Amino acid sequence: MTFFYRFQAVATDSAPSGSARSSSVPVNITILDRNDNQPRFVQREYFVRVIDNIPHYPNPSAIAQVVATDADTGINADLRFVLVSGNEEGLFRLDDTSGVIYPNASFLGQSGRRFDLTVEVTDESGSAVWPEPDRASVTVTVDSVNTHKPEWFPPPPQDQTLRLREETAIDRVILKVNARDRDHGGENARISYYLKVGNANVGETKHFSMSEATGELRARGTFDREVRPRYELVLVARDHGTPVAFETLRFLTVVVTDVNDNAPVFPTGSEVARFTVPEEEEPGFLVGRVKAEDADEAGGPEGRIYYYIVEGNEDRWFSIDKTYGNIYTKQKIDRETIDRFELVVKASNDADLLCEGSTCDVEVTQQDFEDRSAIRVQIFVEDKNDNLPK
Ligand SMILES: [Ca+2]
Ligand SMILES: [Ca+2]
Ligand SMILES: [Ca+2]
Ligand SMILES: [Ca+2]
To answer: Is 346 helix (H, G, I), strand (E, B) or coil?
Structure first.
């Protein structure tokens, strides 16, 4: 501690009173410091948590700073810090003038460990010897940081596709997925499974649910291919790590396979198709085409349409191309003999019906017209003016 004293020194001569003279000068006295104060830590216990990927090189992050004070001045208060125990593995470095503790090596692999460091402080630039230097304890706990993303195991196949038959009510596990995480245990490696809808992770949608814990993907309800033929699912494996949780995605296509739950129908407003055919045309003339639609899978066996002339063709005037619905003449027609025909055409998914002349596997009822699976076809024979004027 240093003190300053300031006073006036006054000199007076011995002349008789009244004529005596005096003079004064200011005097400054400095009492020099002695190192009579031991440095003391402001705080004697420090508890710090660090993450295992704390930067250590080239720009190490500070772990803690110990602070001490000393009532002296100058060199008597010039403090130095020393790490006296707890650093046997050399993982820490103490800046001896600032009191800042840094990592001296990577902390990866140290997660879960606790280090008890002891720091001493002394003065006189570290050369003072106090019988009992003041000490502070610094407890450092290493937390692991989430480093790895979950990985699907085994790796999912490219373009993974599952098939579900439509029109059957189901409630069963259709796929079980699994992921693993290379972090060492704990929340950083704990994985939950979800479905991703938009940006949200959800446990279930209308038709699918994912078990958060087991990765079991379940489908339930009745699937209607004609309403929705496929589902593109995004499956999520997400860990519970800190400071950031990671997730990994995979894609799954669920294809709803067709069953024949729709019959072919002719369009509304076409209860009767009307065509004309010129008389005396060579057989094979294209009279016209009828066309039905089937809501089942186009081109698939359940959506493919076959056409049969089931009435009105007993004398085999016409034929129909059963896959296209094209009606052709089979004979030359003379309008003066017959001027109109009325056929009934039936559309079916069955490729193997037999309808030829008066032999036909199919019998058409009024219900077929109401269901629009059958259509009346009127064919008018046009006069070719075969009686040329002479
Ligand atoms: Ca001192
Ligand atoms: Ca992880
Ligand atoms: Ca069908
Ligand atoms: Ca169908």
So the answer is: strand
- Tokens for 338, please give them: 């017959």
Residues 135 and 197 in one domain: no
Are the CB atoms for 293 and 347 separated by under 8 Å?
no
> Which pLDDT does position 268 carry in this prediction?
86
Is residue 6 situated within a structural domain?
Answer: no
Q: Does 286 lie in the same domain as 206? A: no
How many domains does the chain divide into? 3
10 Å Cβ neighbour count for 332? 12
Q: Cβ(382)–Cβ(277) under 8 Å?
A: yes
Same domain? For 158 and 239 the reply is: yes
Q: Decide if pLDDT at 176 tops 60.
A: yes
Q: Is the pLDDT of residue 308 over 70?
A: yes
Same domain, 247 and 288: no
Give the model confidence (pLDDT) of 70-123 as tens digits.
Answer: 999 999 999 999 999 999 999 999 999 999 999 999 998 888 899 999 999 999
CA of residue 305 to ligand 3 center, whole Å: 8
Name the closest ligand to CA 129: 1
Ion ligand 1 contact residues with beta carbon within 5 A: 35, 37, 70, 72, 76, 123
**Residue-number span of the structural domain to which 164 is assigned:** 151-257
Enter the pTM of the model: 0.65
Q: Is residue 7 part of a domain?
A: no
Q: What is the rounded CA–CA span in Å between residue 178 and residue 183?
A: 16
Alpha carbon of 130 to ligand 1 centroid (Å): 10
